[in-house]
Amino acid sequence: MSRSRFLDMDSLENGLTTTVFGRTEIDYLLTTGSTNDVAREQAEKGAPEGTLVIAEYQSRGRGRLGRFWHSPPGSGLYFSIVLRPRIDPTFFPRITLLAGVAVAEAIEETTALQPHIKWPNDLLLQGKKVAGILTELYGDITSPRIILGVGINVHTRPEDFPPALQQSATSLTGAGAHNVSRLKLLQALLGRLEHWYGRHEQGESTAMLEAWRRRCPMIGRRAAILSGPAEIVGKIIDVDDDGCLLVEDEAGQVQRILSGEITRAITP
Ligand code: BTN
Q: Which atom of ligand 1 is nearest the CA belonging to 63?
């Protein structure tokens, strides 16, 4: 295991400020395919809300849009949480947004760094991706289960990323943070996730959306957005209450984009 020691689950629990996240069950794995897959299996077997599945290494870490999430041993945080939302699961894109805010806040709390958020859920430092979130919804309206997966590059060195990612990915250490404790980062993050998820479950999203917007410098700028096969070019106006991106296209029409990604900023 490189750079940092193994995560110690007793120390994790001792320093948690949460009442549910990381309190109900913890599945700590040295190696696995994908923590999202393990968490899903646990959820199918009845694992309660807040169950945490965390791995030191993932051989098949998954990203959004079918991508691979590079998960070298011991140098990042790779975990998934089981959620059993009580409010309408159609609000589930908001969970992706609230997770982005929570990750940004935990990084701010643990380091001096201030990440930006790129819709829907990329965390960027100095324009490079440092963390990502994969939210997957299973079950039906009577018994929805959400697996919230978070990957953060903590100590990953540039040469540890595959060549194709070396220009676009970074880590907290790579962006200038010193002596980052993965344990403290995880404790802070579980606290912020539980806070925002609790408010979400109470039907409150205004403060979370404001916190999200404050960290999204792309609002007001022109960009290209890929949504399915379509590329939309226009000015990013906002995210709406449902987490959709609002873009004024070249014809002056406001498009509401449910899923996709911002592929590039366009300078005027
Ligand atoms: C993305 O930005 O594309 C999302 C990346 C999500 C990666 C995390 S690592 C823990 C969890 N398990 C996975 O297989 N993926 C998520």
A: 3
**Considering the entire predicted model, what is its pTM?**
0.95
Pocket of ligand 1 (CB under 6 A): 34-36, 58, 61-64, 67, 69, 78-80, 122, 132-134, 149-151
- Which amino acid, one-letter code, is at 218? M
Q: How far is the CA of 137 from the centre of ligand 1 (A)?
A: 14
Instruction: Give the pLDDT of the chain (268 residues) as one tens digit per residue.
Output: 444 479 999 999 999 999 999 999 999 999 999 999 999 999 999 999 999 999 999 999 999 988 999 999 989 999 999 999 988 767 788 899 999 999 999 999 999 899 999 999 899 999 999 999 999 999 888 889 999 999 999 999 999 999 999 999 999 999 999 999 999 999 999 999 999 999 999 999 999 999 999 999 999 999 999 998 999 999 999 999 888 999 999 999 999 998 899 998 887 6
Query: Could you tell me the CA-to-CA distances from 33 to 54, 55, 59 in Å, in that order?
Result: 11, 9, 5
